[in-house]
Write a structure and sequence with these properties.
Elements lengths: L4 E9 L4 E8 L5 E7 L6 E3 L5 E3 L2 H11 L7 H18 L3 E3 H15 L1 H11 L5 H25 L9 H4 L1
Parallel strand pairs: 4-6
Antiparallel strand pairs: 1-2, 2-3, 4-5
Helix pairs in contact: 1-2, 1-4, 2-3, 3-4, 4-5
């Protein structure tokens, strides 16, 4: 492939944060895709011990992917979660983002997405040292789920006693 190529199609992706271009090599005819991202000042992550580390999209995405391994979660959904977390961090913080804020956002999104992926991520993020910590986290997840189910049931209007079963559906 040479440097001489032609753009066939362009479109905005990731909520306008990047541009996807379909290109073709003018020498060999091979087609390929490139992504151009808007360059912002580099975000720095403030680690728990106070050290600063350059933010890495790949590191965040890899952690979420590993949590979702062999779970019914598409790469498209993982990418959307990562995009959302990055956007949230850029909007909430200037250039320095606490590592805890990133981890908490990832856990919140994974809990909505898949409970098993959430517990996997939590085990690494919270440094689970023994089985009891896993059990405690699973109990908490179940308790939250039961509370949400109860709240959803109580928010629904009660069926009208005069209506037929077909009308209640």
């Amino acid at each position: 492939m040479e440097d001489d190529d032609k753009v066939l199609e362009s479109r905005a992706v990731r909520g306008g944060a990047a541009i996807r271009r379909r290109r073709t090599c003018l020498r060999c005819g091979r087609r390929f895709t490139t992504y151009e991202e808007i360059m912002r000042e580099d975000m720095m992550v403030v680690k728990r011990d106070g050290r600063l580390e350059e933010f890495s999209r790949a590191k965040l995405e890899n952690g979420i992917q590993r949590s979702c391994l062999k779970r019914p979660v598409s790469m498209r959904k993982i990418t959307a979660i990562v995009d959302g977390i990055i956007e949230e961090m850029e909007n909430r913080y200037d250039l320095e983002v606490p590592a805890q804020a990133i981890g908490d956002a990832a856990m919140r999104e994974l809990l909505r997405l898949d409970e098993v992926a959430y517990v996997r991520y939590a085990s690494i993020y919270r440094h689970f040292a023994n089985l009891e910590q896993f059990v405690r986290e699973i109990r908490d997840v179940r308790k939250q789920g039961a509370e949400q189910d109860s709240a959803a049931r109580s928010a629904r209007p009660a069926p009208d006693a005069k209506s037929t079963p077909e009308q209640r559906q």
